[in-house]
Design brief:
Organism (chain A): Dactylellina haptotyla (strain CBS 200.50) (Nematode-trapping fungus)
Strand content of chain A: 15-25%
Oligomer: heterodimer
Radius of gyration of chain A: 32 Å
Protein name (chain A): Nitrogen permease regulator 2
Structural class of chain A: alpha+beta
Helix content of chain B: 40-55%
Largest sheet of chain B: 6 strands, antiparallel
Number of domains of chain A: 4
Pfam families (chain A): NPR2
Number of helices of chain B: 30
Shape of chain B: elongated
Number of strands of chain B: 20
Largest interface: A-B, 131 and 140 residues
InterPro entries (chain A): NPR2-like
Number of helices of chain A: 19
Number of strands of chain A: 14
Largest sheet of chain A: 6 strands, antiparallel
Distance between the termini of chain B: 31 Å
GO molecular function, one term (chain A): GTPase activator activity
Chain lengths: 442, 805
């Protein structure tokens, strides 16, 4: 990733759009020595309309592609009597490869334009031929520093400095769910200081690869929404990764990424070290056989029993976690679905009995459940978004099976239900005993 | 570093503009929709798509709309503002406009004097006088004349990719100029008897061609082959299928009689696609749209060359606009009149509506039928992890099935053994074809093909059913028709190619099934298959340990109905075919045996080698020192010998290579502090940045493999025994390209078997890398299933199976 060229162009009253300085030389206009030789990148004259545009298009970011290069500029227009025709248009243009990810350069181009605009307004920096002559060195320095260090700090005069930095663009994090389990990828104790966000400081000790987000909030006695935001932030900056809750009743199976794991010898050693419970390393074919013997319909418990002999040096939780983290193992989730007795179709949420809204509303006032349960109720409301009022959390206290019914349209798996309702899978199933349900593994 | 291709469709299309240039100057003739809005680009898909702005921290990508409790989304949306030029309050806007327009006039008149540009943008001012205050005076917040000036490109940019962005809007197009002599017609190449001795009147044309060619070089995606004859490409996309390309010649329509070479009034036309793509997907979204833009432009260009079509249509639109202005029509009245009366405007509108809805645009310009689309993914090999954008309902398979156009990815030997799975009701598809009927006999055979298609029946079986002597060659004309029809249906998103359904195969609930659709689909399912167990019951049955599908079928009489149900479940992505993949395991005892034999042979060979004067001493020592115990020169010919030396050198250089990789990874790999055992950091999974970036890029199936497998691939892997001399069981990574030692192992494995098994095993070895479904091998290699089973059973000790889709 690098800048191919930076050039300074302006509108000359006599000659039209012109390039005054370019780094490196002859990039966009032919040199005066060999005018017949075309410039190395593209011909400025062909596209000058998009570099020095009409006044209406000034003061905005304009990019243009030519000859497999991408030009980023921020044409700036100044109006003043001292200029010929009362206006002065200039543009500092950064040229990149067309295929380059260029978003981090956009603020840089903008800032550069603003800076020179300010300089011009203050001292006539660009209009004055003496000060102007330093522009070449400046853009040369900017290009060199950005290409080498992704940042630069170049003093121009006592009050102005070019301060630029390229920030990488990171995609937004996945939405965080209550049942997500964060695993840290950095040593928080070495990077965290007292200036960190308070909730962040509270929750970080509980990020241990086992606790779910909801559980972390609970253990840290932190607000759930804030906890979720913190976790999301950590995910955005790559300080954590997200997996699901590990339990021995879970089911896992390999997916199509397995071949990538097999082809990566570095990963094998990593795996051998990570899964070992006592320092003794398993050979890779055995590891592979163990992973491939995980399959749909087979819980980890059953699988451990089947392979007890080969697993004696293995930490099963870490074994599974490794596969999940590396992406060649997937979790088979269980979805309880409430079905209609007669037809066997799934009962939609809208026809689930809502615990007599009138009465439950009044209950809300009377019954004040423990705060966590309340949060769970409102979360359920947020999730289903249908026919659920705040009364639900009251209803929750009356009949433990009722809020459950809201999860039985097939869109919620046990992980999500159990974390929301703070019940174990067994409890959930027990509470559902009265209803005809099917369980779908996906 | 380009952005990864996202699987989620998001055309990001804001508007389509048509700009022309004629003797009167440049003009924005037409745009659609009449009042484009930037947000429109983001409302088109069901996926939540963020907003692009220059604030790099709030960058965005496509995530599932199912992220229902995602409060950050609203933040991000509210933070981003769409800044349109002059888009403030109305009063403010008009003030700005009048001020700006004054200065614009000054400026443009100055430009006229100053610049020696060949085109004269000042003509834009003309229609501005009359149009003051009309609703269409501003497009996308830009003044009409500003935008037409901007897109009225100089001739130097003709026939290259045009990509200009102004703040969040990107203008993408493929401007087309006429020839220097004022005509549009490209002379047919066939007319030139001998290109190396061009006649004088054709010299010009040729020069022009080369100029075009030079221009096109600047074109990145440039599939310029279609430039010459867009018919060849686009015709095949008309709604009713045409014969396969190889058979098309006789069907090829007569070229219309060339008109007299009258210079057209039209000098340039430029169809501009205004987009607002999410920053992180910028490149892939732009490239997708560029293909559409270019094809549309080329189709128009052909029509313009034929009978001045674009010139006629634009003239008509301009006339309608002028009349509408005089009458004081509202923009909607005017636009609907234009759409009624101009086929070009109508085509642009259709194109916008369909493309921005990620659908296929079936277009007709000047009686020329063609279709354009941004292809969407119908299936994926990779299951998204919980922190990746979700693709619920998308079919999961690792098979490289049939695409809408032939590609290198496809498995030529396997495709005849695939079947078509219709994604819509067959009767509806047929009805649609009959309505479109304009190809006569061909459409009859197409309908017949559709009727004969069964998801349980492979293409090969379809042919052999009609002609019993059927071994199918890909060149078989009957098969070519079938493949062509199939691709046509796939292009139109009516069908998907699958491994034929069979009751002996394994099907599981797809981990990518869209559970949110369970409620409505269970009701539909009940209506379709009232006699069968309801959908939740069925899925629940398929949830357990994988069993062949026949295990769920109560009796032979039910088979037909159950297979139909299976097809339905496949169609909606509820289930996926569980395939078997195999890895070749080399046990220790094989390695020991090979090593012993090689040591013996090497000792013998060493003696021979000293005696052999023909081989230079240097080579001999090189062989001996670089590959100890690997090769026995007595067996191998000198040429293999030298390659093996290269290989071991490659092997040697690969090791520091691998080291640096590790070193790089080490930086983010600070530690994975999980649970209580965070002490031992050694050998923890690397879950640092590299991992995060990997997981955020769902697209290329083999990305991880590709990154590690640099050109030296098969030799890069360190050989387990070479370092320590300690032999362990190991998995062979790339059995199709074995090192000499690996070949020796494979040979050794086969040796212990009866010769017939050995022979077949030799053919199978290349598939045992975990990337080929065993189910496809028998078909591909024309080995009977029984034989295959026998061989695999015999080799059971050496094979590790894995099962996924």
């Amino acid at each position: 990733m690098s800048i191919k060229c930076i050039f300074y162009s302006y509108f000359d009253a006599d000659k039209g759009p012109r390039v005054l300085y370019q780094v490196p030389e002859n990039s966009v206009t032919p040199s005066s020595d060999t005018p017949s030789q075309p410039p190395s990148l593209f011909l400025f004259d062909e596209i000058s309309d998009y570099i020095i545009p009409k006044q209406q298009l000034c003061d905005r970011l304009i990019t243009f592609c030519r000859n497999r290069y991408r030009l980023l500029g921020y044409p700036t227009c100044l109006e003043d009597d001292k200029y010929d025709r009362n206006e002065f248009i200039f543009n500092f243009v950064i040229v990149l490869d067309e295929s380059e990810e260029f978003s981090s350069y956009k603020p840089v181009v903008k800032k550069l334009a603003r800076l020179f605009k300010a300089l011009e307004e203050q001292t006539g920096f660009l209009w004055n031929e003496v000060t102007r002559s330093s522009v070449y060195t400046l853009i040369e320095q900017v290009m060199e520093d950005l290409n080498s260090y992704c940042e630069c700090m170049i003093p121009i005069n006592e009050s102005n400095t070019i301060n630029l930095k390229l920030f990488p663009v990171i995609p937004p994090p996945a939405p965080i769910k209550a049942y997500h389990v964060p695993i840290s990828t950095v040593r928080f104790e070495s990077i965290m200081d007292s200036n960190w966000d308070l909730t962040m400081q509270r929750i970080i000790p509980y990020i241990d690869g086992v606790n779910s987000v909801r559980r972390i909030a609970e253990l840290a006695d932190a607000d759930y929404t804030l906890t979720k935001k913190c976790v999301s932030e950590l995910l955005y900056y790559g300080c954590i990764i997200i997996v699901d809750v590990f339990r021995f009743a879970n089911i896992y199976a390999v997916n199509s990424d397995l071949a990538n794991f097999v082809n990566d010898t570095v990963l094998h050693e990593e795996c051998q070290g990570y899964i070992s419970s006592n320092g003794r390393l398993l050979d890779f074919p055995t590891i592979l056989e163990l992973y491939t013997s995980l399959r749909q319909g087979l819980s980890v418990v059953e699988w451990s029993l089947e392979n007890a002999e080969r697993l004696k040096d293995v930490d099963v939780r870490r074994f599974i976690q490794f596969g999940i983290i590396k992406g060649f193992l997937y979790r088979v989730q269980k979805y309880p679905v409430r079905i209609d007795d007669g037809s066997g179709v799934v009962v939609p949420l809208s026809s689930q009995p809502v615990a007599g809204l009138g009465s439950s509303a009044s209950l809300t006032g009377l019954v004040t459940g423990p705060p966590m349960l309340d949060a769970a109720g409102s979360l359920a409301a947020a999730k289903t978004g249908k026919s659920v009022t705040t009364g639900v959390s009251g209803g929750l206290m009356v009949d433990r099976s009722l809020p459950l019914l809201r999860y039985l349209d097939g869109a919620h798996h046990f992980d999500s239900i159990c974390t929301d309702l703070q019940q174990s899978e067994k409890e959930v199933l027990k509470n559902l005993a009265a209803y005809p349900i099917e369980i779908i593994d996906r | 570093m380009t952005t990864e291709r996202s699987l989620i469709p998001n055309p990001s299309l804001v508007a389509i503009l048509l700009v022309i240039r004629d003797s009167a100057g440049g003009n924005l003739v037409f745009h659609y929709p009449p009042q484009p809005r930037a947000e429109a680009a983001h409302n088109t898909s069901t996926w939540r798509v963020g907003e692009t702005n220059t604030d790099y921290t709030s960058s965005n990508s496509s995530f599932s709309s199912s992220s229902d409790d995602d409060d950050e989304a609203d933040d991000r949306n509210s933070r981003s503002t769409v800044r349109l030029y002059g888009g403030g309050a109305a009063t403010e806007k008009s003030a700005v406009t009048s001020q700006r327009s004054r200065s614009y006039d000054q400026r443009s008149s100055r430009r006229r004097r100053d610049s020696d540009h060949e085109y004269d943008e000042e003509d834009d001012d003309d229609d501005e006088d009359g149009a003051h205050g009309a609703e269409w005076e501003h497009v996308l917040g830009f003044r009409h004349d500003v935008i037409s000036g901007l897109l009225n490109v100089p001739r130097a940019l003709s026939r290259t990719r045009f990509e200009l962005s102004v703040e969040q809007f990107v203008f993408l197009g493929y401007p087309c100029y006429n020839r220097p002599d004022g005509t549009w017609q490209r002379r047919r190449r066939e007319k030139k008897p001998k290109p190396e001795t061009p006649k004088t009147d054709e010299t010009k044309d040729q020069e022009d061609d080369t100029a075009d060619a030079v221009n096109d070089e600047g074109d990145i995606t440039g599939n310029d082959a279609d430039d010459e004859d867009p018919d060849a490409l686009t015709l095949s996309r008309s709604k009713s299928p045409n014969p396969p390309p190889s058979l098309r010649k006789k069907f090829k329509r007569e070229p219309r009689k060339p008109l007299e070479q009258v210079p057209s009034k039209l000098a340039m036309f430029h169809v501009v696609f205004v987009m607002s793509p999410p920053q992180l997907e910028y490149h892939s979204r732009m490239n997708d749209m560029y293909d559409v833009a270019k094809q549309f432009t080329l189709a128009l260009k052909t029509q313009q060359a034929e009978d001045d079509y674009v010139a006629r249509e634009t003239e008509r639109i301009i006339e309608l606009r002028e009349r509408g202005e005089k009458r004081g029509d509202s923009i909607h009245e005017l636009w609907s009149r234009i759409l009624r009366e101009s086929t070009l405007a109508d085509a642009i509108a259709t194109l916008y509506q369909q493309i921005s809805a990620s659908k296929i645009a079936a277009l007709k310009v000047n009686d020329f039928d063609f279709a354009l689309q941004i292809p969407i993914m119908m299936e994926t090999a990779i299951l998204p992890s919980i922190s990746e954008p979700q693709l619920p309902g998308m079919h999961l398979t690792t098979l490289h099935t049939l695409g809408s156009t032939p590609s290198e990815d496809e498995d030529m030997l396997l495709t005849p053994h695939l079947a078509l799975l219709f994604l819509e009701d067959v009767d509806d598809i047929i009805k649609e074809i009959i309505q479109e009927q304009d190809q006569g006999s061909l459409s009859a055979s197409f309908v017949q093909f559709i009727q004969n298609c069964k998801p349980t029946l492979s293409f090969a079986q379809m042919i052999s059913a009609s002609s019993p002597n059927g071994i199918i060659h890909p060149e078989n004309p009957e098969y070519q028709y079938i493949e062509y029809f199939a691709r046509h249906l796939i292009y139109w998103r009516k069908a998907r190619a699958i491994m034929p359904l069979h009751y002996r195969r394994y099907y599981i609930v797809s981990p990518n099934a869209d559970m949110k659709r369970l409620v409505p689909q269970s009701i539909i399912f009940n209506k379709l298959f009232p006699a069968l167990p309801p959908l939740p019951k069925m899925l629940s049955l398929l949830s357990g340990k994988p069993r062949p599908y026949s295990a769920y079928i109560p009796s032979k009489d039910h088979r037909q109905a159950y297979m139909e149900m299976l097809a339905w479940l496949m169609r909606y992505g509820w289930v996926t075919n569980l395939l078997t993949f195999a890895f070749l395991k080399i046990p220790k005892d094989i390695k020991v045996a090979v090593r012993e034999r090689q040591a013996r042979e090497q000792a013998e060979a060493a003696v021979e080698m000293i005696q052999a004067a023909s081989i230079s001493a240097a080579t001999a020592t090189a062989v001996n020192s670089t590959s100890p115990g690997i090769i026995s020169p007595g067996i191998l010919s000198p040429s293999i010998l030298s390659t093996s030396v290269e290989k071991s050198i490659a092997n040697g250089t690969a090791i520091p290579n691998a080291k640096t990789r590790e070193g790089m990874d080490d930086i983010p790999r600070i530690s994975l502090s999980t649970g209580g055992d965070s002490g031992a950091s050694n050998g923890r999974p690397k879950t640092g940045w590299s991992d995060i970036t990997d997981s955020s890029n769902p697209a290329p199936p083999r990305s991880i493999g590709a990154s590690t497998n640099t050109p030296t691939t098969p030799f890069e892997k360190p050989q387990l025994e070479s370092s320590s001399g300690q032999l362990e069981d190991s998995i062979l990574y790339e059995p199709s390209q074995p090192t000499p030692l690996e070949s020796a192992w494979i040979e050794r494995i086969a040796e212990g078997q009866p010769p017939d098994i050995g022979v077949i095993f030799d053919r199978l070895v290349k598939y045992l890398n975990g990337q080929h479904a065993i189910e496809g091998i028998a078909l591909r290699e024309a080995i009977s299933k029984r034989e295959l089973k026998r061989v695999l059973n015999a080799m059971d000790r050496y094979i590790v199976y894995s099962r996924h889709w």
